[in-house]
Task: structure prediction
Amino acid sequence: MHPAAHSQMVSLVMDVLPEREAGLLVGSRQLPLLAARMQNIRENNSHTPLPST
Result:
């Protein structure tokens, strides 16, 4: 994962999840998989904006 993309994903996760859960996700090896899945969803549904929180 590119460092800039990683930083953006970490910021997004920290904004959405509680601190403990965000820390667990950011520290896991699954984060790049989640980032890739989110990118695929974003590209396939580009006409549908992501819901804001």
About this structure: The helical segments are 3-16, 19-27, 31-44. The chain has a mean pLDDT of 80. Residues 5 and 35 are 9 Å apart (CA to CA). Residues 3-16 form the longest helix (14 residues).
